[in-house]
Amino acid sequence: MPETLRSLLHPLHLAGLCTLAAVAMSLRWIAGAHPALAWTLLGAFAIAQLSHDAVRRRSPRAADALLLLMPVLALLLLWINPRVGTAQVLLVIWTAVVASHWSARALLAAIVLSGVGQYLLMLDYGHSAPLTVTLLYTGFQGFAAVTACALRNAENSRDALVRVNADLLATRALLADSARDSERVRVARELHDVAGHTLTALTLNLRALASDSQLGGRAELKVAQQLCGELMGDIRGVVQAMRDGGGLDLTNALHALAAPFPRPRLALEIAPDLRIRDPALAEAVLRMVQEALTNSARHADATTLNVSLVQHEGRLRVSIEDDGHLHGVVREGNGLAGMRERIDALGGHLALARAARGALRIEAELPA
């Protein structure tokens, strides 16, 4: 589902659209030259509400400017004719939107200021009970704020649980692969030590029999010596293949980590000859990609995250870049700082830069 459509189908947006329709129906009671202005104000309010999420993904400051414009439009509509009493409903919608993005302190200040604006406009109009009406709609605003905050907290908790579950699945995949790799090495070692020891003893005994004057010329003995040598070579080949085939499978772990994110999509490019046997190194790569996925989803509005892993001359090179756009300068928050600390602890190097198209590019090099 497209992001815009998914945003419009959000419960708060659907409720807001229904309320806007009800307010639009009430505009027929505004007489004179005011209806055109009222429709203009209501249309501007609707555009600001519906475009807010899309604007926030590109410019948070512009989105906050829209949030500051919306109560002004609502109060202007109230100023046109306070008698109708529906313009205050727009402030309830606005409060629900603000509660999803502003802090509790800013939200409380916004509700108080809008309430003062309502009261002054109705007092100037000569309303018979301005304080009662103001407190009534302020209560509705408080209810909308509490509902929006509860919904936001529930969504944040759900997203956090999804990320933790993906983290556990990815870590479990690494642990399982590490256990399989350790078991493979153990079996290879046992096969080499036990079977190799026995076959060596068998070779020595066959050689001793071959030196016997009565048995040395027998064809069966030569065949046994030949088969023993071939078996010894086969076992060595199997042991070498088991050791060379080791290494942790990062592909499954990284895809498990990215599975809960609807966007960005993980585009993974891993060199065929890449072998990572150190669980700490694999964990560092996993956390790098995890942090990059989170940053791309929250701040860059990216659709694809490209991850490249290459091993060259005993060094692992990790390149991460999305197709989004980074707003402002590159700043190291807690996530990027933790990434740098983890890589430094392994003797690696991390570089952050802005790519040519404006996305954040992460380059890391670690000893492998």
From TrEMBL:
Annotated Gene Ontology cellular components are: membrane
Q: Where are the transmembrane segments?
A: 36-55, 62-80, 92-113
Mind listing the UniProt keywords for this protein, alphabetically? Kinase, Membrane, Transferase, Transmembrane, Transmembrane helix, Two-component regulatory system
User: Looking at the record's lineage, which domain of life comes first?
Assistant: Bacteria
Q: Which InterPro entries match?
A: HATPase_C_sf (IPR036890), Sensor_HK_TwoCompSys (IPR050482), Sig_transdc_His_kin_sub3_dim/P (IPR011712)
GO: which molecular function terms?
phosphorelay sensor kinase activity; protein dimerization activity
Domain (Signal transduction histidine kinase subgroup 3 dimerisation and phosphoacceptor): give its ranges: 183-245
> Which Pfam families does this UniProt record tie to the protein?
HisKA_3 (PF07730)
Q: What is this protein called?
A: Sensor histidine kinase
Task: Tell me the organism.
Answer: Luteimonas yindakuii
